[in-house]
């Protein structure tokens, strides 16, 4: 596996591959890699000749009160995992090369970036869209791989790619979970044992709404109330939002649910912010 830090060297390596007819896949990450990231790398390896994993803790997507400074950065473990996954290139740009002095340009996606985490974390998706576009310009991939655990992020990137005519396929990959249902996340490492023990309730709450739907409940408010009632049984959890939204434009659903609906949740457990979501299927 090659480790590349300079954007020019990265573009050169990618162009060299493409010049010989090899496709390039990009998996953007912030490191502290786990099985969720690994699933994206395997998918990219299965579909592309050259797999690039970027590892960049993007300051632009953290708010002033958020965990940028303390975000886990276990570089050696990340490198070893990527070696085992037979990743071709680990791209680890320096923040000063991504955002040099005088940096002034930002990508704002309207609509899908505004609700859910966009409302709770002002500026977050502006930082995400900007860094993803910049990474795409540095790597020039044929395809880029994202996890549906960050469903809204996938919609933001997909909208950006469509609106800005990006020549890169956006591939959405399923959420990888721990055996007890907790969605894997680099932030799970922050959880104290007593918080880790209650964290799977987020997934259980989402599933309870799906079960209510399976049982014939169609009302959006009733489905949300069902999920909330599960979370309310656990005093360690402070709910930030739990919303039922249209899976395409992410606007809130109010009437009866037909087809598919996205139930998305964000909550704090012992100070750690976790998110999860489930695509509910009504079967009608
Ligand atoms: P991050 O390092 O948190 O920025 O995540 C990098 C990529 O991995 C994003 O596309 C995430 O959606 C994806 N990802 C993170 N956790 C999971 C998971 N549990 N299952 C699938 N993909 C994930």
Describe this structure in words.
Helix 6 crosses helix 7. This protein has helices spanning about 5-20, 35-45, 75-85, 95-100, 115-120, 125-140, 150-165, 195-200, 200-215, 220-230, and strands at about 1-5, 25-30, 50-55, 90, 145, 170-175, 235-245, 260-270, 270-280. The protein is α/β, with parallel strands linked by helices and about 280 residues long. It has a six-stranded parallel sheet with strand order 1-4-3-2-5-6, with helices on both faces. It has a three-stranded antiparallel sheet with strand order 7-8-9. Strand 8 and strand 9 form a beta hairpin. The chain is globular. The structure holds adenosine monophosphate.
Brief summary:
The chain contains ten helices and nine strands.
Please supply descriptive tags for the structure shown above:
6-stranded parallel beta sheet, 284 residues, binds adenosine monophosphate, globular, 37% helix, 9 strands, alpha/beta
Class based on secondary structure composition and strand pairing: alpha/beta
- Provide a count of the helices: 10
* SSE string: EHEHEHEHHHEHEHHHEEE
Low-confidence stretches: none
Distance between the termini: 48 Å
Main beta-sheet strand count, sense and barrel state: 6 strands, parallel
Shape: globular
Mean of pLDDT: 98
Small molecules bound in the structure, each named once: adenosine monophosphate
Overall radius of gyration:
19 Å
SS strand fraction: 15-25%
Helix content: 25-40%
Question: Mind sketching the topology for me?
Answer:
Elements: E1 2-4, H1 7-19, E2 24-29, H2 35-47, E3 50-55, H3 75-84, E4 89-91, H4 95-98, H5 116-120, H6 124-139, E5 143-147, H7 151-163, E6 169-173, H8 193-198, H9 201-214, H10 220-231, E7 237-245, E8 260-269, E9 272-281
Parallel strand pairs: 1-4, 2-3, 2-5, 3-4, 5-6
Antiparallel strand pairs: 7-8, 8-9
Helix pairs in contact: 6-7, 9-10
The structure holds adenosine monophosphate (AMP).
């Amino acid at each position: 596996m090659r480790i590349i830090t300079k954007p020019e060297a990265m573009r050169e390596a990618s162009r060299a591959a493409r010049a010989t007819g090899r496709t390039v896949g990009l998996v953007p990450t912030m490191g502290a890699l786990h099985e969720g990231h690994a699933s994206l790398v395997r998918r990219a390896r299965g579909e592309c000749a050259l797999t690039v994993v970027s590892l960049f803790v993007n300051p632009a997507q953290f708010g002033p009160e958020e965990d940028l400074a303390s975000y886990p950065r276990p570089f050696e473990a990340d490198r070893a995992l990527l070696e085992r996954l037979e990743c071709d290139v680990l791209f680890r740009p320096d923040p000063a090369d991504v955002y040099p002095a005088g940096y002034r340009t930002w990508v704002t996606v309207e609509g899908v970036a505004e609700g859910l985490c966009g409302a709770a974390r002002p500026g977050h998706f502006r930082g995400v869209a900007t860094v993803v576009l910049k990474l795409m310009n540095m790597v020039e991939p044929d395809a880029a791989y994202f996890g549906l655990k960050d469903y809204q992020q996938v919609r933001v990137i997909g909208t950006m790619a469509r609106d800005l005519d990006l020549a890169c396929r956006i591939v959405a990959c399923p959420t990888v979970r721990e055996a007890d249902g907790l969605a894997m996340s680099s932030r799970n490492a922050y959880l104290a044992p007593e918080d880790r023990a209650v964290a799977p309730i987020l997934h259980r709450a989402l599933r309870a709404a799906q079960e209510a739907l399976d049982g014939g409940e169609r009302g959006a408010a009733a489905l949300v109330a069902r999920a909330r009632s599960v979370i309310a049984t656990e005093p360690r959890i402070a709910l930030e939002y739990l919303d039922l939204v249209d899976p395409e434009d992410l606007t809130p659903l109010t009437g009866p649910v037909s087809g598919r609906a996205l139930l998305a949740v964000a909550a704090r457990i012992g100070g750690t912010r976790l998110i999860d979501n489930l695509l509910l299927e009504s079967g009608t």
